[in-house]
Amino acid sequence: MSSEILNAMKISAMGMRAQGTRIRVITENVANADTTGQTPGADPFRRQTITFKNEMDKQAGVKLVEVNDIGEDMKTPFPMKFIPDHPAADDNGYVKLPNINPLIEVMDVREAQRSYEANLGMIEQSKNMVLRTIDLLRS
């Protein structure tokens, strides 16, 4: 099998792994969209973010995408909502809510799914090329 085809499959597999991690982070954000603090003034769940990096595979001579960091969104403020009887309400009756926008999370997960599917399609195409080559060699 050609090393170029193997490299293409390796690049796509690493892309799938990275997008799978991204989907997991997004689903954790959605699952915690209503998770507030438990004590007055306590911070709620903070939106997680993911960054990627290119890593050189020196043996194959190709750049692969990898997860660089899973961090927290420190830029987006927590929205406040007046819920005076909530255990996390401050002295004025306001509760900090998670800094998660479900619409953004849905758009992010759709993008990650499309990227995952594109990488999967690339692996399928590479596999088909290998199978066609084997069939030609048998003839």
Describe what you observe in this structure:
This protein is α+β, with helices and mostly antiparallel strands and 139 residues long. The protein has one domain (3-138). The chain has helices at residues 3-31, 102-138, and strands at residues 48-57, 62-72, 80-82, 94-96. A two-stranded antiparallel ribbon has the order 1-2. It has a two-stranded antiparallel ribbon with strand order 3-4. Helix 1 runs antiparallel to helix 2. It starts with a helix and ends with a helix. 16% of the residues are buried. The mean pLDDT is 94.
Write a brief structural summary:
The protein is of the alpha+beta class and 139 residues long. The protein has helices at residues 3-31, 102-138, and strands spanning 48-57, 62-72, 80-82, 94-96.
